[in-house]
Structures are given as structure tokens and as C-alpha cells.
Here is the input.
Amino acid sequence: MHYGEIKANDVANGEGVRVTLFVSGCTNRCKNCFQPQTWDFEYGKPFTEETEEYIFSLLAPGYVSGLTVLGGEPFEPSNQRSLVPFLRRVREKFPTKNIWSWTGFTWEQLHTEGSHPRCEVTDELISLLDVLVDGRFVEELKDLSLRFRGSSNQRLIDLNATRAAGELRFLPDRDRSGL
Here is the structure.
């Protein structure tokens, strides 16, 4: 896996202060994507053990709420296979930190056998996350007032509440001024 950027002290991609990893590679290619350079699976730098250690050092301070993974596309099967062992280690080292991820695929696509993003590690990847923002960015549905989303078709899925309820549960939807 390659990555395009790592942001320390990010407050735009999830609740609280976060460390954000932008993975490379995306087949969704949404119109007016804010990171089209990350469509290329070879964009940026290789994700190595040193990269992991660097991210761990950024996650260590108590004021950091957690890790955000976006892209590119974290749910491209090749990225999932690299992210699962890394996120397992994040969970082991930082059990109180939360993990958010964005995907251009929908919850339903991630759970449909035979769909492009579904692979042997998809369920485990989802199990390692606390929040999933799903759905492609759709230019015609762009809405800057939405919380942590670019277009109104995207959903803020609270995965812990979803697991507890056995059905989809969402984070409260309020505009950015209400945070």
C-alpha cells in the first residue's frame, strides 16, 4: 500500500484532534474529488513499518482522540489487506482511541458478496472501526453545511451503536457550526 499524506493534529476529519492517513488508490474516481492524485495506487510513499511507528508516535499524546483513514479509498481490497494488520496494532497500542474511515462505497456494497470492495478481510476491517462515512462524493448533492461529509448521500455510521443494535445507527447530524 502507498499513502499520500499523514496529518498530525487534524480537526477536520472526525471528532477531536486526530491523526489522519490518506491512503492511495481509488477506482471510484468521483467527479470533483478533492484528492484526485490519490486515485493512483502508486501515489506518494510506500506504507512501511517506519510509517506505522511514525503514526504511533503521533497517536501517543493524550489529547489525540484517534486515527482517521481516508484516501484515495481505504476499502479498495488491496488497501484493506494492508490496513487490517495495521489497525489491529493501533487497537492493541491505543485501546481508548477511536478509528474513523471514509469510503466511497456504501455499507450495502461492503456487505454484498461479489461486489468490488468485498474481500476476505472486509468484515474484520469494519470491526476495527468506530465510525464509517460511506458513499461516493456526488457533486450535485454537495452541501458544505453537512457534518464531516461533502454530499448529502453520504452517511455517518456509528459502528459501535450499529453493532449493539444489530442494525444501522448514525451519528447525530448537525452542521459544523453546532460542533
Observations:
- The radius of gyration is 15 Å.
- Strands lie at 2-10, 17-23, 45-46, 64-71, 98-102, 131-134, 155-158.
